[in-house]
Every structure is written in C-alpha cells, then in structure tokens.
Amino acid sequence: MSDTTTSPRRQALAHFAYVMRDNPVTFLAFAMFAAFVLMALFGPALVPYDPLASDASKALQPPSASHWFGTDNLGRDVFSRVIVATRLDLTISVAAVALSFVFGSILGAVAGYWGGWLDAVLNRVLDTIMAFPLFVLAMGIVAALGNTVENIVYATAIINLPFYARLVRAEVNIRREAGFVQAAKLSGESDISILARQIFPNALPPMMVQISLNLGWAILNAAGLSFIGLGVRPPEAEWGIMVAEGANFIISGEWWLALFPGLWLMMAVFTFNLMGDGLRDLVDPRRRT
Amino acid sequence: MTNQTRRGFLLSGGAVLGASALPFLKALPAQAASGDVIVAVMGQTINSLDLHRSGTNRPSYQVAVNVYDRLVSFGTKETPDGGLSYDYSVIEPEVAESWEITDTEMIFKLKPEGKFQDGSPITAADVKWSFDRAVSLGGFPAVQMKAGSLESPDQFVAVDDLTFKIKMLRPSKLTLPDLAVPVPMIINSKVALANATDDDPWATEYLHTTPAGSGAFKVAQWKPGEQLVYERNEGYTSGPVPAIKRVVLREVPSPATRRALLERGDVNLSFNMPNKDAKELSDMDGVTIQTTPIENAIYCLNPNLSFEPFKDKRVRQAIAWSVPYQEVFETAAYGRGKPMWGGESTTPSDIAWPQPFPYSTDLDKAKALLEEAGYGAGFEVPLSISLGQADWMEPVALLVQENLAKIGITAVIDKVPGANWRTASLVEKRLPLHLETFGGWLNYPCYYFFWAYLEGHLFNSSNYRNEEIETLTAETLHMPVDDPEYAPKIKRMIEIAWDEVPRIALWQPALNVGMHDVKDFEYWFHRQLDIRNLKGV
Amino acid sequence: MSGRLKSIGLRVLQAVPVVIGVVVVSFVLTRALPGDPAVYFAGAAADEQSIQQIREALGLDKSLLQQFLIYVGDLLHGDFGQSIMTGQPVADDLIRKLPASLELTLLALCMSCGLAVPLGIMAARNPGSLQDHLCRMVVTAGVSLPTFFTGVLLIYVFYYLLGWAPSPLGRLDFIYIEPDTVTGFYLIDSAIIGDWEVFFGALKQLALPAITLALFTMAPIARMTRAAMLSVLSSDFIRTARAAGLTERKVLYGYALRNALLPVVTTLGMVFSFTLGANVLVEKVFAWPGIGSYAVEALVASDYAAVQGFVLSMALLFVALNLIIDISYSLIDPRIGFEAR
Q: Start and end of every ABC transmembrane type-1 domain (chain A) (predicted)?
C-alpha cells in the first residue's frame, strides 16, 4: 500500500471500485443484486395491484398496458405477484444459506481443529448426506416434515451443509499446525479465539463463492420443490410455484404465466452466480494490491 | 434377422404378438388411428391387472372392464350432446343369457357358447369362484359387493354348469345393478386355481400380472408406469367383437404434454382431460371433446360439525351464502359440468339428484346469519385441500377464502399431501373446513345419502348426524324406486340436506375425453376408459 | 497389482459406514412420511377391519425397531419389498428404470462436457477477455434456468411449434420395437444388434431432455476447467515448456489439459449426483420412465418400499461412482496412487 494515510474504510471502498471497474460482469451482477434487494424491500409497497386479489372476470389476459405481465387463471396481476415474490424467495435462500453457513462452519471448524472421533463421525455423517442426490434428499425432508416455508429452509440448509463443513474443515486442518497458529497459542490465546480470528478468515474467500452459488441453488431448489407440489402454500406468491403452475398453460398459449416468473427466477439465480466471482475478488486478500 | 426392421411392433403386430404385419405403418404419428389401432393417453398409472387385489388403484379398474366380463351389463344410450353413455335403466346380458328374480333368489342362465380367452367354456363354477373371491379378499371389492347385499360365499351356488344362483339376504333394488359394476368380474377359475398356492388361495399374485378373463380385449403388454397394450379378443362371446384391433394406452403425467399430443394428432384419445383444455380444444378442427356430467357426483365444500362454530346450522348456511359460485365454476371448472347453486325453492319438486341447492352468492345474508349465530366478529378456520387434486381445489379454495374474508371469517389454506388426504378427511374426519368429492356408482339418491350423510359413513367427512335422515335413508335404500313412498321420503331427505347444509354443493363435475380420428367413446359411471365400443373414423 | 486391488478393497470398506447411514436415513425418512400406507393400500372404500388386516400383512403394526430389523433382514436377502404404486417388486422396478435414468444422465453429461471443457479452456487462455466474460455469462445463464421450465419451453418450441422433436412420450416412440435388453441402454442395445433405425429413434427421444440437463450442468464443469487450466498455465513447468519452444497446441493439450483434468474429473462426480437430482424434475416433464419420476411418485404416495429402494440404489451408485473416479485418477495421472488420498 503506497498511500498510508487512507483509512481502512476508504481503502475498502477504493478496492470495491477497483473490482467493479476491473470486471464489468461483476459490476452488472452487483447492480442487479441491488435491484433485487430494492424489490424485496419496497416491492409490496410499489406494485400496482394486490398480488392476492383475484378477479375471475379478468382471468388469463395477455400482457397489456394495465397488466404488464398479464393476469393468471384467477385474474391476479402477474407483474405484482412476480415483484412481491422477490421478498419471499430471497428470504428462503438467504435464511437457508445463512443456516448452513453458520452450522457448517462451526461443525467443520470443530472437526478440523480437534480431529479425532469427532472428525470421523462428522465425516461419515457428511458422506451420508452427500450420498443422496441432493434434491431428492430435500424432497424427502420436506415431504416428511410438511411443506411450510420453514421446512423448505431447513431442508435446503441441510443439503448445503456438507459444502461448508468440508471447506472449513480442510482449511482449518491445513492451518492448525501453521506457524502463526503456534505463535498465537504460545501467546496464550484460547483455541476458540484462534479458530475464529486466525484460522477461519482464511476460509472466507472460497466460501464467498460457495455462498453466492448456494443462494442461487436455494432458489432453484425451492422452485423445484414447488414444481412437484412440495413448495410454498398458496395463495402466497413465489416464483417457483408460479412457473410450475404456469407451465401447464404454455401449451395452451398463455405463455406469460410461466415466462415472467421464470425470467425473474433465472435473473435472480444468474445474479447470485455471477456475484460469486466478484465477491471472491473483493474478499481475497491476495487480490488487494 | 438382425437387419430386419424393428419398427411397427405395437402398431402392426410384430412376431411377438403373432399378428400379421400391416403395410401402412412407416410414418405413424402423422396418421395415427388408421382404424385398426388407437393410441390413447392418460395421466395416471395402472398398478395391477386384478381389481380384487388389495392395493389396486382406481385407474386399474379399466382392466376389469375391458378384459373381464360380468353376468350382466348396462345398456347404451345417446347423451343430449350426441355422445354415448351407459344407460342406467337398462340391464343387458353379458355372460348371462337370461335371469329370473324372486324375493329370495336370483337365478342366472349362462350363455352356452360363452368362452374364456383361452378357449375354455365359462361355467357357473367360475362365476361362483369369482364371486367368492370378490367377497372374501376384503377391501374395496367386499365393500362394493356388500352395497348390493352380496356378503358371503354361502349366497352363491353353482346349480349346474350353466345355472348360477344367488340367495338374497333381502330384496333390494341395488343387487342387480351391483352385478354390472366392475367388481363382480368373472375369472377363469381353472387357470387361477392352477396358479394358486397354499399361502395365496385366490391366486392374487398370478392374476395381478396375468389376467384370465373372457373380455373383449386381452392384455398384450403391460409396463407399469409406462404403457398397457390391449389386443382384441377375436373369439369374444359375450358381445360383438370390437372394431378396434389394438389399443396402446400410454401414461403421460403432464397434462400439458397430453394436450399437445392430442392437438398435434399424435394420439387418438386423451382420457380425463383438464376442464380448461377441454374447453379450449372443443372448437378445434379434427378434435372432438366429449364432456359428460358425472352422475350422482358433486364437488362440495364441507364444514365439519366437530368444529365449534359449524355446529350452528346458521354458520354453515352463512358459508353457503358466501361462496362466489359463478366465479368458482368459471375459474375452477371452466364452465364444464353443471351448476349446483341458485335453486328456486327450498323444497325439491322432484327426486333428481344432484339438483341445484337453494343458495347463491349473497354476502349480506351471510353476514346477517353470522350475526344471528353470535359470530359477527368472525373466527379463524383452516380450509384444507388435497395436493393430489390441487388442479380444481386450489382455485376454489382461493376464491372461497377471499369471500369468507369479506364476512369476517379468516380461512387459512392448508395443503394436505395426497397420501394423507384420505386419512385426514374421510377416516379421521378431522378437517374443519374442506373440499370433498363423492360420486356414487349406483345412481340413486338414497345411495348417495347412505355414503355421504349417515353418521360414521366414509364420505360423511362433516361428522353430520340427523335422526330423520338416518331413518329415511335406511328405509329407502333397498326400496324399489316405483314404490309410492319412495319419492316423498327422498324429497324430505333432500330438503333437510339443503336446510342443514353439512355439504355445500359447488357444481356437478364432468368427465372430458378428447378424441382425434376416433368416435363412440362411451361414458360409464366408474369413470374409467372403456375401449370396447371405440371405432376409428 | 495386488497392492492396487487391496487399496480398492480398502476404498470399498470406507464406503460401508456410508451405506449403513443411508439405510438408516432411508428408513427414518420413510417412516416420517405423512399418510398411512395401509390405508392407501386398502383402497378407496375399505373399512377399518380390512385396513387393520393390511397393516398386519405389511408388518406396520410392529414396533419401529422390529420393522427396521425386518427391513435390514430383507435387504440382506436382496428383497427390496413391493411397491404399492406399481404393484411390482421394487427391485424389478429399479432394474427396469435405472438404465433409463442413467442413459439420460450420462448422455447429458457427455454433451455438457463436450461443450463446457472447450469453453473453459477458451476462457482460461484469455482471462478477462470478452470471450471469457461471454463464456461465463452463457454457462451461468444455463445453470440459472430451472430445469422444469427449460424442459417445458423446449417442448413448446421444438415439438409443439416447430415439430422437429418427437412427441415427449418416454424413451422410444411406440412404433419401434425395444431392443433386447443387454445393458438396458437403448442406444447401446440397438447399436449392438446394428439396428440404426431404433438407435436414432431413441436418440431423438433423448435429445430434448438431455439438452435440458446439459444446459444445467455446463456451469460447474466450465468453471472448474477454467480455474484448473488457469492455475496449470501459470505453473513453472508450462513456462519451461513454452520456453523450450514447444508449440502452443502441444503445451495446451499435451501438458496443461492433462494436468487440469484431475480437478475436472472430481467435479464430474459431484455434478453427476447433482444431475441425478435434477433428473427428477426433467423426467416428470418428459414422461421419462426413470427412477427420478418413480421416486417423486413414491414420495407423494408414501410408498415406503419404493422410496427406500430408490435411496439405497442411489447410494450404491454413488459409492461405485466414487470408486470409478478414484481409479480414473490413477489412469490420468499415474503418480497418484490410492495411498496418496
């Protein structure tokens, strides 16, 4: 760093700006992410119609000036539903990923740091989870527990858990004998503190990518569950359920029912996926030059 | 041999099926249905070829219809819109040639020329064995037999080779029609017994995969979850040999795909189409849609009397006045079926069933009734629907939910998994407010009441009990329809059911069948695909 | 050689706890499913008594522990039980349906690799270039599409509108005779007997669902190829090779790719499991008679035996797959023995 007078915050901002300028795709991803967050926060207040109000006389109207994305089979405004659904979809994916991130990290760190039978047991459990095609496991869990938003979140969190646990475990395992860890130990730092302050931050950059990808997967996962009838309950607006219901109308010519929520769903997943690389660039210490 | 073309197996009859090859089949999909072969699609899976076996699902009943015969069958009539339907008023011979009925017994003379598909003669011993099997294996077949007062093997006697006797427990108008439902099918007992074991005296394992009947079609191939291929029984003796040589029945779960297939002419028949597709394709060239209202069936909204507010009939009536019937009918049924609301009078003028209930959408009346019952402030209630029937239940529930909110009742939609639905709604009867559909096979109002309004009976998912209905149903169930007491009693039952509304009628559903280059689909009360009458165009 | 066999044996042993875990999870999961199979089995209008009979016949009146022991005992005899839905022994169902799913999955993976690996290499050669960004956008768009949506869209466009694709009716149009079962893969079976008409018939049916899946699976493969190539290309031995004047082609495909393949193959294992999950939805859309759609139906119907059978076969498949990957490791890079892992 040549300019020693800049504050850490300004450094971070400068780095952010650098990453954005350096990679237009990352810039695009962050811009879209901001748009989605805005939609999630203010969407319900901004949409022209009540997303739940049906009007049988206006059922299945194609897109027009008054209904930008047309209306569905109950006469509800598709545009309003698509926008309002953003909040629920983002909530599901963020909650699921946050859960798996927290629990995965803790489990992985503990297993990697102390090793032994704990490590062995955790490994077998993770192997077992990963021996299932993940979507099928999520299906089973939701089918068994019942289809509520919470259970969808839990199921998604469980299937994502191994990724985090594995990543953290590997990082911790490599570094627990490293010099800086030994030094910290000698200086009397507690194990927990060493784990949290010295070792764990090293695992963050690869995890950022994982988080971002998983946010996308979580949305797809919830949508897939909706498609087979194990998703969010009606009349709640949710992209997956809207695509699933709309898919039955494509052949009969009412393409707008599935297309717009599908498009939004795709854009959201797309955003998260693209953001992964950008996030890694942001947090990767080696890129800060 | 290796370079011989392997096309045309199912349509022209390859070596496996032993039929001669037909020349036209190189480019099939463009000209499906060339008169001899029909390709049909349906959404459900056939899980057994034996109706009597426990675990056999409803779509499998069609095998009993097409591959097996019964003693008697119903006649055929033309429906008002030009389609064909079975005729409830006419009983025709099938395996039996003639019969005599007294108050204590029924005696059937079998057709002397009757042959099973393997060429062996149909004897009274086969009939006796088959009936014994139907009442002995338990489950649904036994229940259905019981509805016709056929309960024990002691009632069935093979007098000689061609004479079969049923000893009646009581004279009942239901017995003869109950012999024409799919359950009392006649099985080749010689073949079945040769494959029975000590553990399995009724040969359920064998007949599960290998039918042994005398019906108009044989099963040429069965791949569960994929397809069933029927092949005409050239030596059919119980009726005219079918016009169609082979029927390939594919299972296609996606309704959108089924629609595309029919629209593009790649299949000839789409069974049980969604109402929306039926409505939209009805104007299409080359596609004929036959829509038949399902007899003795109503889609209902049921308030459960075990839920405190619904104990008061005024609350139930308030719900009935709040349903947006027209919207529900347009949105969920796309106008296919018959309206069951807006009846003129609160007393029925005839014994037709179902007939429109004397309710319509009137939110003020609904509110007033709620006030009167002391629920003016409203209450909260889960509104349960089955995931397995979400196609119509979901829109209905959403529209009902919206109107209930207007009279102060908060309904929370509760989606119950298909596997749980029956237990929750019919067996445990624990759903406070739910949608329900019951259709009686035997087309009498008293039969409907027996199943749906008597306390503890399976389809009375509202936990309803009314002493007068209990008595009247018991009195009318076996009484002949032309008895002068029958009509007044039935009218009284309908009047009570209307006033007390433990079941709020929404509409009478319809069965839609789409046809392309095929005609003469015949509707049956069992709502399964009967292919015996189909013809190419 | 015997050393290698021994280490393969060790790998198999490592899988044993996983299989045990899967057996337990499958049992617990199915028992937690809503609905009572006895009621389902008994049919629409059965009374309490016949439901009870069936409950006893299915062994559902016993305690969970007893049920579990019976289940494990049956498994050891190779008995997966009988499916309620199809009325067939579960083992028969799986044997018939597994090849359908595998054929679809493998073809999709081949298509996906065929596209994604060159894309990844292209991106790695010019990181940060327009090509790189474009490649990233394309594969990311692919993985962002819900498969069931892509499937329906493809059917609509290529079957309904254009009429290019055959009707989405499963593995083979009914005008063809199925090839005699050797592997259960229609493509291979028909090729064995040289019946190209059936081969192309099967291929036509496979095309749309395979494309749907391939679009979905390109991203991880392309990403991994790019990352692995990048790190290899910046390594010393490539610099040395370039300095030694080897052609770019030779450097890229002879040295770099060969070394970059390892992580890619590892990813493939992951992607395979991922694809099998996505299969469930695609099979439903295309009426594909595979085990994915079988599992969905079984779950919805609380068909214990079928769900358990499915889960177990998946786990075994996965264990086998990991073995194959480990062996192919040593083929790609002989320096890596099993001991190293």
A: 86-276
